[in-house]
Design a protein that fits this description.
By secondary structure, this protein is of the alpha/beta class. The protein contains 18 helices and ten strands. It has three domains: 56 residues, no CATH class; 216 residues, Vaccinia Virus protein VP39 (Rossmann fold, 3-Layer(aba) Sandwich); 98 residues, no CATH class. Helix content is 44%, strand content 14%. The protein is globular and about 60 Å long.
Amino acid sequence: MLQHDIRQRLFHGHLELLPQMNEIYELELAFAESQALSEKALVHHGAYFASVKGVATNHFRLCAGESMHLPDGTAIKRRQFFERNQFRTGYATHGLFPYRGKFHPQMVKGILNAMGLRPGECVLDPMMGSGTTLVEAAVMGIDAKGFDVSPFCQFMASTKIDGLRVALEPLDRAVRESGLLFRFFGDVAGAKIKLLGTADGYRPDILPQGMAAEWFAPKVWGILLLAYLDSVGFAERSSRQKPNVQFRGILEKYAAVARRIQQGLAALDIATGHAQAQQGDARCLPLAASSIDGILFSPPYSFAVDYVENDAPHLRLLGANLDELRGRMVGLRGQSLREKFEGYIKDMQQVLAECARVLRPGRCCAIVIGTNRNQLGEVFDQDPAEVEGLDLQMIRLAEAVGLKFTRRFERRIVGLANTMRDEDILLLQKVSDESGTRSL
């Protein structure tokens, strides 16, 4: 018995796990993948394996080599994070823009596999945030629809999707002439940059002097604008570099990210799925009943985190009305923390009811949610250890609308232990009388 470790007993010799795997939930998701996917599918879509019978997996090949390109002056701690998490995050276009609270792309891939999603099917993220689910699904050949009430989130997610196909030469020229671009963005930002995340991009009546027409193509323009918004946010947090220097470094990183994933997709002959990011309310989805093959999302912790205030600089530059947006954001209505929490629960009841409505019978909904006991202790003025976690409350709300709880994966939140110690991946299945539904 002593000569075999847990990995050998679970996966035998023909499945080689990725390096850097050191958490129980990763082993659990890897085992779920090994049970749900054929050997060929593991090579193409697996999240936690380096090779299958000596054949390198697509995930390994997309992530291997030098970790994500970072601008000069990036803090050592941040560089070390991406080195330690080379196979978890930072690959594809996930590394564009550091958005608070996004989840690990590798984990998303593992969950999609555990849920039984296949290329050509469609997954929904009704509260998409930075668009991690949409990008990951697209790279797996799965179609995806995402919604968020925030125009900034919609713009950010759309841009990350576009980065999988954006023309590279205009980005290279933009890096070379970053000073001109930076001055242009600074000039138009004073009058608010409105609706620049739309499909039509930005169309000036007269081409500004020195500006290349190709920069105003929608996909290219989105990358350039997101890089500018990234540099604006960085300038508010740090004064280590001049804003124009930081902008060039970020733009250089964005161009390198797009080039690397496009080269990887081409080398592996990967046909990406169709992903669409829209501005919309998860409480009232513009989707037909029983039209979605799977749902994966992470509810916001709005009663504890003001996402409008967090994104305020970017929302203002996009011309958003912050007060109006706050009134539509899940869990931000009310004065006291208790009122906001009660509004949050009411909102989530509606969100889960919509998820149950649009999900096909017998298919799965996954919710990634922190226990949030510290904040809930403040809400109810109780010891956090005695408060019922959000995970249990979500299960109760989900089962009330026909989403049956089937399985839980638990993971520790490293680096955020003072705020949330644990996060749960909850798998639910839409109740159905039909035979032949997939077991979890």
